[in-house]
From TrEMBL:
TM ranges: 6-24, 31-49, 61-78, 119-140, 146-165, 177-200, 206-226, 238-256
Name of the molecule in the record: ZIP family metal transporter
Membrane topology listed for this record: Multi-pass membrane protein
Organism for this UniProt entry: Hymenobacter nitidus
Highest taxon listed in the record's lineage: Bacteria
One Pfam family in the UniProt entry: Zip
């Protein structure tokens, strides 16, 4: 299980490296974000919702979902305040006495740029939930776990690309971008370990709370982060179709599992 969880985690980092070494254009960036949004939305429909509905715990679902929405809204509000504060007090490249023009100074300024915590939190929860599902899948049987690992590899590759693209767009350095994505990918292994040990024997009430919290976070990630950023580029039929392609790819993989 550890070996199979390391493969998609490594693929996610590979996606980030590709994105920083060959930064995509605006249209390709939008297509990557659309595709990632479609994949995550498909994860919600194929993996989370059936399990949540089958357990039939409306009280726990309502509580977990409400907490998930509240946490994501609070994080977005905090992130915007940090960004507004930085815009109000920018670090200048030129003052009456000093001109900051060296590459080292510019790189240092990039490192001070705040991370988009709303996006990163949504991605982190997505990766952690994926790991939980992978661990539970391997607990159910090696074949189920293997097929789920293949499906998740497609998802985390698109998420690694999308996250790296957004971090670069926010002014992060290449090294910091890859480091952040690598840290996020580690959550897949952590989630898989927890899924095959702790949550495998958890009650339906606990699982309902965890999954409904993840459901809210993933819907927020799709609607308020990935698609919002993707729509900064003028829409076209082929860009819109990438969302549905991402949904279809994971839907078919989920049916094979």
């Amino acid at each position: 299980m550890l070996l199979y969880s390391l493969v998609p985690a490594a693929i996610m980092v590979v996606g980030a490296v590709v994105a920083v070494l060959r930064p995509p254009g605006a249209a390709v960036r939008s297509a990557i974000l659309h595709f990632a949004a479609g994949v995550v939305f498909s994860v919600v429909a194929v993996e989370l919702l059936p399990d949540i509905v089958a357990r039939h715990r409306p009280l726990e679902v309502g509580l977990g979902f409400a907490v998930g929405v509240g946490v994501m809204l609070a994080l977005r509000s905090w992130t915007r305040k940090v960004a507004d504060k930085q815009k109000a007090n920018p670090i200048p490249y030129f003052t009456p006495d000093v001109m900051w023009t060296s590459e080292e100074e510019r790189a240092a300024d990039q490192r001070r740029a705040p991370l988009p915590m709303g996006l990163l939190t949504g991605v982190a929860i997505d990766i952690l939930i994926d790991g939980l599902l992978l661990g539970i899948g391997f607990a159910a049987g090696a074949e189920e776990g293997l097929l789920l690992a293949i499906a998740l590899t497609i998802e985390v590759l698109s998420l690694g690309l999308a996250t790296a693209v957004e971090l670069q767009q926010e002014g992060q350095t290449k090294i910091r971008t890859v480091s952040v994505v690598a840290a996020l990918s580690g959550l897949l292994v952590v989630g898989a370990g927890v899924g095959i040990t702790v949550l495998q024997g958890a009650s339906d009430n606990v699982m309902e709370l965890v999954l409904s919290f993840g459901l809210a976070a993933l819907l927020f990630l799709v609607t308020e982060e990935l698609l919002t950023e993707a729509h900064e580029e003028p829409e076209s039929p082929w860009l819109t179709s990438t969302f549905f392609l991402g949904f279809l790819v994971f839907l078919i993989l989920g049916m094979l599992v």
